[in-house]
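debug: dumping io for the single-chain case to check the tokenizer round-trip. Nothing else runs in this session.
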Amino acid sequence: MKTAIIGGDKRMLYAAKAFYDSGADVAIAGFDDLQSLCDIRVMPVKDALDWADCSVLPIRPLADHCLNCPYSAEKYHIERFAVDNGAKPIFCGNAKSLSPYLHAPLYDYAAREDFAIKNAVLTAEGAIDLLFRCYEDSVYGAKILILGYGRIGKVLARELTALGADVTVAARKLCDQIWIQNAGMKAIDYSFKELYDYSVIINTVPAKIINATVIDTLRDDVFVIDLASKPGGVDFERARERDLTCIHALGLPGKIAPKAAGRIIKETIIHMIKEENGGKENSGLCDDRLLLHL
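debug: decoded output
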């Protein structure tokens, strides 16, 4: 199966390499300055679409109604992409952003639980890396508050506790609070009565949890990491007024572990192809009989 990897950041280059290593016939597009990558073809977007049987786009496939190709000067509008791609299958994240424009089969790898769990581990690893690089005190013994006990919160809580931090986790559900306590950590709800004692706060909740009122209760030397997607869960304007250290850490997997992030994209897509083809061990990447709806 001829696969075009189009746009995105460094993790997409590693995804292309992972596909190539698995035996796929791969082309890369949307990277103007890229001369070569192993023996993988480097093409303009239009040529790659004409050549390929399917396309792989980034987790966020669009930017201002164009393909998300930050390393290309060419602006490839989504309506042009829809025409040039035709009915060929597309693997991407955030497929709902593309669905109004396309009639091609869309497969959203980022919506899958297996992808989300693996990506959460990389995000947590990136947050811990930020702590070690930018927090000017010891993580060991630090009083750390984690907001949210979803995939990322679970990994963060476990890893920071293992590093010797004094971890508290805020969770809405009583059952989550019980699980947190059973894991040896403190659990609170979102009433936020006493936050002054925390030297580090890490938000994973995609809602304005740390609003202006909460900001005003924090200590002057607090270190805040917001992992929530835009617009984030922190009132950054109020935080700037108070001169607090607040980092909106977006896209950490692609920044701190692009090789692993690219490999996860490839592994997830192969699982999707296997499921589409009745669970066959052969992923179908090199076998025309096992292609998706072509």
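debug: round-trip ok. The radius of gyration is 21 Å.
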